[in-house]
Amino acid sequence: MKNLIALLLAGFATLAVAGETSTVQPSAVEHYSYGTKLDIARVVSLSTIPNVCEVVPATMTYEDSQGQRHTVEYQVMGDGCSMH
């Protein structure tokens, strides 16, 4: 289920515009937990996932449907695991 959430959040990254800058500062980091409702209108940025084989924190900054910017922290599996 965590992998599904990570994939969903990564999918929102396709909506992000590369190289965009803004003077709006994000609010305090919100911590995602299963079932948290997110109003994501536009993804601003995603943190880089490290090349390790363990669960690591990741962050996503997004704008909601009202134009407010949020930063959410969630857990994701690192990119260093190989499937043999």
TrEMBL record:
User: Which positions make up the signal peptide?
Assistant: 1-18
Alphabetical UniProt keywords: Signal
Alphabetized InterPro entries for the sequence: DUF2790 (IPR021245)
Pfam families the UniProt entry points to? DUF2790 (PF10976)
Top-rank taxon of the source lineage equals: Bacteria
Name of this chain's protein: DUF2790 domain-containing protein
Provide the species name: Pseudomonas kulmbachensis
* Organism taxonomic ancestry: Bacteria, Pseudomonadati, Pseudomonadota, Gammaproteobacteria, Pseudomonadales
